[in-house]
Amino acid sequence: MATPRLIFMGTAPLAAVSLRALLNSSCGRLIAVVTQPDRPKGRELKLTPSPVKEVALAAGLPILQPEKAREPAFLEEIRSLQPDLVVVAAFGQLLPQSFLDIPPHGCINVHASLLPRWRGAAPIQWAILAGDAETGVTIMKIDAGLDTGDMLTTVTTPIFESDNAQTLHDRLAQMGAELLIKTIPPYLAGEIQPRPQPSEGVTYARKLTKEDGRLDWRQCARDLWLRVRALNPWPGAFAFLQEGGPMIKIWEAFPEADINGTPGQVLAATKQGILVACGQGALRITVLQKENARRMDVAAFLAGHAVKPGQFLA
């Protein structure tokens, strides 16, 4: 087979890791990179390129940035490039069948879960939220559904108690990139038999919102601990110092199973942590951040803020 002609599609940081791996591999010739349009970012809403675009620019690759992947002009441009295979990772749009039919070897996707568990937009966060013991990466063929295509290869990792969404993301990004490079050559050679996803065990990882970060002290301490980890760094778990008071982001916390009290009540406030009663157990907050202030450990926070046993967090 002649050198395969590859198009890469991706937007998010996870995808940038896969693109770098492809650039350093002998899997084929990258003829174009497709990524989402530049978006306003930060307080000044400055138009900012995606992490994938930054990698593509540095490598001197042609870049396409369609608003929608179903645009006729975009589809025609992809046809004219005559790709053998399209590689997708964290692109951010569903691809229409009219696109999937273009490359003779189809489109494959780097998905950060062990499918069929956690199909959808936020598989890393939902794996932590659910208290899963392990997760991984699936390289799959893309069909018209939401992460429903046949599986090619998988790799697994434990979810450690020290993991948050960022550390798990970074590990899966690297594992996924390595798996992608190992998968493409045998896949193009017809040496990998695609496997249908099991019909049992399907779960969906819907996109998270800022409101998902709100801590409900009526929940058990373990569930709130999982939420703090799953939503770090975005959108961040949060509560209020009192009803109507300033918001605090909670970046690190630990569950205490054998302590109970009225949900939301501060049981202790020392340099070891702010201990807050939950529906079951208590949560010990150790790293936090007040609105419009910097992140700090609990000792530094308490030096400048009065948090007393008996008060309630909302």
What is the compact description of this entry?
This protein has helices at residues 13-23, 51-59, 72-81, 97-100, 123-129, 165-188, 221-230, 298-304, and strands at residues 5-10, 29-34, 39-41, 46-48, 63-64, 85-89, 107-111, 119-120, 134-141, 151-158, 204-205, 237-240, 247-256, 266-270, 273-277, 282-290, 296-297.
Characterization of the model:
The protein is an alpha/beta fold and 314 residues long. It has two domains: 5-204, Formyl transferase, N-terminal domain (Rossmann fold, 3-Layer(aba) Sandwich), CATH 3.40.50.170; 210-304, Methionyl-tRNA Fmet Formyltransferase, Chain A, domain 2, CATH 3.10.25.10. The chain is 26% helix and 27% strand. The chain contains eight helices and 17 strands. Helix 1 packs parallel to helix 2 and helix 1 (13-23) runs parallel beside helix 6 (165-188).
Which class best fits the helix and strand makeup? alpha/beta
How big is the Rg? 23 Å
CATH class value of the largest domain: Alpha Beta
Taking the sheet with the most strands, its summary is:
7 strands, mixed
Residue windows where pLDDT falls under 50 for at least 5 positions: none
Number of strands: 17
Instruction: Fill in the CATH topology of the largest domain.
Output: Rossmann fold
Widest beta sheet: strand line-up: 5-2-1-6-7-9-10
Shape, per Cα inertia axes: elongated
β-sheet strand percentage = 25-35%
Fourth-level CATH superfamily of the largest domain: Formyl transferase, N-terminal domain
Which second-level CATH architecture of the largest domain applies?
A: 3-Layer(aba) Sandwich
Number of helices: 8
Percent range for helical residues? 25-40%
Helix-strand sequence: EHEEEHEHEHEEHEEHEHEEEEEEH
Counted up, domains total 2
Mean pLDDT, to the nearest integer, reads 97
Distance between the termini: 63 Å
